[in-house]
Amino acid sequence: MSRSIRKIGIEAVAVLASVLIFWVPLYFVVVTSLKDAKEASLMNLDWPSRIHLWENIRAVFSARDYMLVRAFVNSATLTVLSIAVLILVCSMAAFVMQRRSDKATPWITFFVLAGLIIPPAIVPTIWVLDEIGLFKTMTGLVLVEVALSFPFSVLLYRGFIGAIPREIDEAAVVDGYGGYRLFFTIIFPLLQPVTATIIVTSSVGIFNDFTNPLYFFPGSKNATVQLTLYNFTSQYVSQWNLLFTNILLITIPPLLLFIFFNKKIVAGMTAGSVKG
C-alpha cells in the first residue's frame, strides 16, 4: 500500500510540475492576447473584461506592411527545404555508417558525435557563408539548419538501420540492385517511422528557430516568424497584447503538428532506441 501511495504522490507531483511549467504560461499567453493594450499592460492572469482577439489579430497581421505573412512564407520555405535536405543526407550517411566497418568508421562516428557537443561558432560561420556568397540567403540558412540537426538525425537513422538485416542488402545485390537503387528502393521505404520522427521534431525546431535567422538571414524582407516578435517591443513602449497575440499565432502550427503526430514521434524514438 505504501508503494502505491508513493507512486500516486510522484504522479501528482509530475502533473503539478507540468501544469506550472507548460499550462500556466500557455494560459497567460492566451489571456493576454484577448486583452486590449491597457489591460495587457497589467501583466496578470485575470480574464479580460472584453475579448479583443480579432482586433489584435488584424493589427498583428497588418503591422509593418503585413510582415507576419512574409515571415510565415519564409519560415515555411526554410522548414520544408531544410527537412528535405536533412532527410536525404542523413538517411544516406547513416546507412553508410551502419553498413561500413573499417578503420575510418570510429573516426566518422566521433566527428558526428562531436557535432552534438561542440557549440556552433557564429562569427566564423558568417565569414564562411560570406566568402562563398551564401550569407543573407535562404540557401545559406538551410545549410546551417541542416548542419545543426545533422548529428542527432544521423544517430536516429543509424540506430534504426541497425535493425534491418544485412541479408536484405545481399539479396538485393544478387537481384541486381546496387548503390543508390538499393538504398532508395529497398532501405529508405523501411525508414518511415524514424523519418516521421525526424520530420516532426526537426520541423518544430527549425520553424521556431530564432538565433540562426537573426544572424545568418538578416533583413526585414527575410524575417521569419520568431523575428516578428520585435515588431511589438521597444525600449519605451511595448504592445503586450499584440506581442502575445503574435506569440499565439506562431505557436499554433508547431503545436498542431505535435498534437497530430505525437504517436509517431514516440514510435520512431522507441524503435530507434530498441532496435539499434
UniProtKB/TrEMBL annotation:
Enumerate the transmembrane spans.
12-34, 71-95, 107-129, 141-161, 182-207, 240-261
UniProt keywords (A-Z) are: Cell membrane, Membrane, Transmembrane, Transmembrane helix, Transport
Domain of life of the organism encoding this protein: Bacteria
What main location does UniProt list?
membrane
The record's annotation in InterPro entries points to:
MetI-like (IPR000515), MetI-like_sf (IPR035906)
Q: Which CDD domains match?
A: TM_PBP2
Q: Does the keyword NADP apply?
A: no
Where it sits in the cell: the answer is: Cell membrane
Short name of one Pfam family: BPD_transp_1
- Chain ranges of the ABC transmembrane type-1 domain: 72-261
Membrane topology term: Multi-pass membrane protein
Family statement drawn from the similarity comment of this UniProt entry:
Belongs to the binding-protein-dependent transport system permease family.
Entry-linked PANTHER family: ABC TRANSPORTER PERMEASE PROTEIN MG189-RELATED (PTHR43744:SF12), ABC TRANSPORTER PERMEASE PROTEIN MG189-RELATED-RELATED (PTHR43744)
Q: What name does the UniProt record give this protein?
A: Carbohydrate ABC transporter permease
